[in-house]
Design goal:
- There is one protein chain.
- This protein is mainly beta.
- The chain folds into two domains: 26-139, Sandwich (Immunoglobulin-like); 148-246, Immunoglobulin-like.
- It is built from one helix and 16 strands.
- The strands form four sheets. The protein has a five-stranded mixed sheet, with no helix packed on it. Strands 10-16-15-12-13 form a five-stranded mixed sheet, with no helix packed on it.
- A hairpin with an 8-residue loop joins strand 7 and strand 8 (132-139).
- The longest helix is centred in the first third of the chain and has 17 residues, at 5-21.
- The protein is elongated and about 70 Å long.
Length: 248
């Protein structure tokens, strides 16, 4: 029997209503990293191997691996020889369960220091998984030793600082030369009261560093951490720090 126009329209409306009433997928996919601990140590020339397990209630779609530096806020755009290691990999997924093995080499000139590994995933409905975060620590085999700092005029633990304070240290490095020197005062890990960085483009093997530090009224009085941090050309880090009291 031939359907009339009104029957066809009615069937179309019914199917649209049925589709609208169907439950939507709001369940997030799940990511598991099966072969690594929270902190992974690597050396230049190594290969990072990831055994990943992705699961979803209906249908997986895609994953993304992101490796980037987690250096402590210093400039790293002009590092001599060494440069930050980074990698982004995007791959397709299917089904409700899929295991993926990724092998990612650490290039020979990768800068030493901490990195973040972040893994993300989405399902076919667009739900995003809780991302997976791991810390990677890279050692550069060209230069494994950090610079040395010898204080010649530097506050002691518990000393009260006011007015102008003279800082003087002797710095030496064994291989890739002294690259960045940073002086800072912190109230906490996230509250920075003062920070000055110096870049030594010629990267000498020895250097006498002096700095006049002014304790100003913009710095709240009380306990703080005074630090001089030194990076060499492959980003090995040495830190000289003291617990002091500020008295502006």
């Amino acid at each position: 029997m031939k359907k009339n126009r009104f029957q066809s329209v009615g069937l179309g409306i019914f199917l649209a209503l049925l589709s609208a009433c169907a439950p939507q997928d709001r369940e997030k996919p799940v990511i598991a990293l099966e072969n690594l601990t929270d902190s992974v140590r690597l050396a230049t020339g190594d290969t990072l191997e990831l055994h990943l397990r992705f699961s979803d209630n209906q249908k997986l779609a895609q994953y993304k691996i992101d490796i980037h530096e987690a250096f402590d806020g210093h400039t790293h755009g002009k590092i001599y020889r060494a440069r930050p290691w980074s990698r982004i990999k995007i791959g397709d997924l299917s089904g409700t369960l899929q295991k993926v093995i990724e092998k990612i080499p650490v290039f020979d000139s990768a800068a030493a220091g901490p990195y973040h590994l972040i893994v993300r995933a989405v399902d076919a409905a667009g739900n995003e998984a809780e991302f997976l975060l791991k810390t990677l620590i890279v050692k550069n085999l060209y230069d494994t030793l950090a610079p040395e700092i010898s204080p010649t005029d530097f506050p002691t633990d518990g000393q009260t600082l006011s007015g102008t304070v003279n800082l003087a240290v002797d710095i030496s490095d064994n291989q890739s030369g002294i690259y960045i020197i940073r002086t800072s005062i912190r109230r906490s890990a996230t509250q920075i009261l003062y920070s000055v960085s110096d870049t030594l483009n010629d990267q000498p093997m020895t250097f006498s560093y002096t700095h006049l530090l002014n304790i100003t009224t913009s710095m709240p009085p009380g306990p703080a951490t005074l630090a001089v941090e030194v990076w060499d050309g492959t980003f090995n880090l040495t830190r000289l720090q003291k617990s002091v009291n500020l008295s502006p």
